[in-house]
């Protein structure tokens, strides 16, 4: 059965009307408010974005007082100084091996990237790595040692209470997610990294960051998942057959699958922050559900969901703390068209769509704003993306048995990295690559993208299309229409 957290929608590395009053009410830290908090991910994979100082003005004008970054760019951190905006920064995956090996490295990193800006820039958390478990460079073993060294370096500066350490995980870290009550982490991750990480989070009073995308679940399983269920709209809901709790939206079910997985390991004290979630306003023809109306519904209804202050069915007393993905559409992101179109704003700072300001307005229609010809021109490009794995709030075994999803290469990915991923799939990954050898049935067309797509799909199908098995560090993504290269048919199962 496909994992409920079929997300992984990796990333590696993700329009509001006058949000001021609304988000000032929302954006209080969870420890000081019964309601949850709304923050925003500020990604910068684009060549047309406003300057960081302009971005800070936009954040303040819209009432955002929490922002999450994907690095520690000095220009951005300087712009955020004395803004009143709390900041989560990130240590990229490529630094984890150095951070894990030598605490003097993290001492220097903290000095350069944190102390040079804090406290004028209100850094509240450090995300050590991002979706590390699906990193093809195998950085998993470095994660917890790196987190501990960063924490120890903060302790030296007496900042370990002020600045928390966590690491965003993708939903593909789950072995089981449906029913929600059966949520469990992948067996191979539990002892080496999950339990040590949760122990660290528990001891330091931190939280687990989770990237959750109901969009990917719906896009891959639209015949079994209700769109209303994915968009927080009125629907019959789903009753968990294990604990008999009722879920009326997919995001709650995804979060509680992670909560159940933590409970199974006896870490009920660790809370969750949704470090990424969103819905694209534009997608390719096979990206079912992508569009402005649905994006406005998802984010607008999510804001209402967070505002009401209630937790999930499994943890009703824990408010939801969420970082929306993302602030801007990013024109240099690779991957399917959706990857470029998660923004609430165009780079011109024009809103992509309006969502409600106040609780009274949440019952009104959510209106897309017409795009200008320049802003809407987003040609489909293959490349890096959030991990596209199906997540479901219902039983999707029928979809799985039908074999209605395939894995293909992101053609826009660098040739070197694509070849590396292909070598892994055909080697250690155990994909059936005989058909793409010279003279074999799928050798033609003799292109790297075609060969990689065949190998990635073979691996994906052999792994029963499990969460995270079509990613390869962003080199691949799931499609719902059967791919074809030349006369080569792609298998749907083994």
From TrEMBL:
Catalytic class of the enzyme: hydrolase
Gene Ontology biological process: carbohydrate metabolic process; defense response
Chain coiled-coil ranges: none
Keyword Cytoplasm: no
Membrane topology: Lipid-anchor; GPI-anchor
GO molecular function, one term: glucan endo-1,3-beta-D-glucosidase activity
Keywords: Cell membrane, Disulfide bond, Glycoprotein, Glycosidase, GPI-anchor, Hydrolase, Lipoprotein, Membrane, Plant defense, Signal
EC number: 3.2.1.39
Keyword flag Glycosyltransferase: no
Gene3D superfamilies assigned to the protein according to its UniProt record, in alphabetical order: 1.20.58.1040, Glycosidases (3.20.20.80)
Primary site of residence: membrane
Catalytic reaction equation(s): Hydrolysis of (1->3)-beta-D-glucosidic linkages in (1->3)-beta-D-glucans
Pfam families per UniProt: Glyco_hydro_17 (PF00332), X8 (PF07983)
Domain X8: 405-490
InterPro entries with a match to the protein in the record: GH, Glyco_hydro_17, Glyco_hydro_17_plant, X8
Entry's family note: Belongs to the glycosyl hydrolase 17 family.
Protein name as annotated: glucan endo-1,3-beta-D-glucosidase
Taxonomic placement: Eukaryota, Viridiplantae, Streptophyta, Embryophyta, Tracheophyta
Encoding gene per record: 25483677
């Amino acid at each position: 059965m496909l994992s409920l957290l079929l997300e992984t929608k990796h990333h590696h590395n993700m329009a509001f009307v006058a949000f001021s009053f609304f988000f000032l009410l929302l954006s209080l830290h969870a420890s000081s408010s019964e309601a949850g908090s709304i923050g925003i991910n500020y990604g910068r994979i684009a060549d047309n974005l406003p300057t960081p100082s302009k971005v800070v003005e936009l954040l303040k004008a819209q009432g955002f007082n929490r922002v999450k970054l994907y690095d520690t760019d000095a220009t951005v951190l300087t712009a955020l100084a004395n803004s009143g905006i709390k900041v989560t920064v990130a240590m990229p995956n490529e630094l984890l091996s150095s951070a894990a090996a030598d605490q003097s490295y993290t001492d220097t990193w903290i000095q350069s990237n944190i102390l040079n800006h804090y406290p004028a820039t209100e850094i509240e958390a450090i995300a050590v790595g991002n979706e590390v478990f699906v990193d093809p460079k195998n950085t998993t073993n470095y994660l917890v040692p790196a987190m501990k060294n960063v924490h120890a370096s903060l302790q030296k500066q007496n900042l370990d209470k002020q600045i928390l350490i966590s690491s965003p995980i993708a939903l593909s870290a789950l072995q089981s997610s449906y029913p929600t009550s059966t949520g469990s982490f992948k067996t191979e991750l539990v002892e080496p990294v999950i339990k040590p990480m949760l122990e660290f989070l528990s001891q330091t009073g931190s939280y687990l960051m989770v990237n959750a995308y109901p969009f990917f679940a719906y896009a891959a399983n639209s015949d079994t998942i209700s769109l209303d269920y994915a968009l927080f709209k009125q629907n019959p809901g789903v009753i968990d057959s294990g604990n008999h709790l009722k879920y009326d939206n997919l995001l709650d079910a995804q979060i509680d699958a992670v909560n159940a997985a933590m409970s199974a390991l006896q870490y009920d004290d660790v809370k969750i922050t949704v470090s990424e979630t969103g819905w694209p306003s534009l997608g390719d023809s096979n990206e079912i559900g992508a569009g402005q109306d649905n994006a406005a519904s998802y984010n607008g209804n999510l804001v209402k969901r967070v505002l009401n202050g209630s937790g999930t069915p499994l943890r009703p007393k824990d408010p939801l703390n969420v970082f929306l993905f993302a602030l801007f559409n990013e024109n240099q992101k690779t991957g399917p068209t959706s990857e470029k179109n998660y923004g609430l704003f165009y780079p011109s700072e024009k809103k992509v769509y309006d969502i409600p300001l106040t609780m009274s307005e949440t019952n009104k229609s959510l209106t897309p704003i017409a795009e200008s010809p320049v802003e809407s021109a987003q040609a489909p490009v293959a490349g890096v993306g959030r991990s596209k794995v199906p997540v479901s709030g219902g039983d999707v075994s029928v979809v799985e048995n039908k074999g209605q999803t395939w894995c293909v290469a992101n053609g826009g990915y660098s040739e070197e990295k694509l070849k590396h991923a292909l070598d892994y799939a055909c080697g250690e990954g155990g994909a059936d690559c005989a058909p793409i050898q010279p003279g074999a049935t799928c050798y033609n067309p003799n292109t790297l993208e075609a060969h990689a797509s065949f190998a990635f799909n073979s691996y994906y199908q052999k792994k029963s299309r499990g969460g995270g098995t079509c990613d390869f560090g962003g080199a691949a993504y799931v499609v719902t229409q059967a791919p074809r290269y030349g006369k080569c048919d792609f298998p749907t199962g083994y």
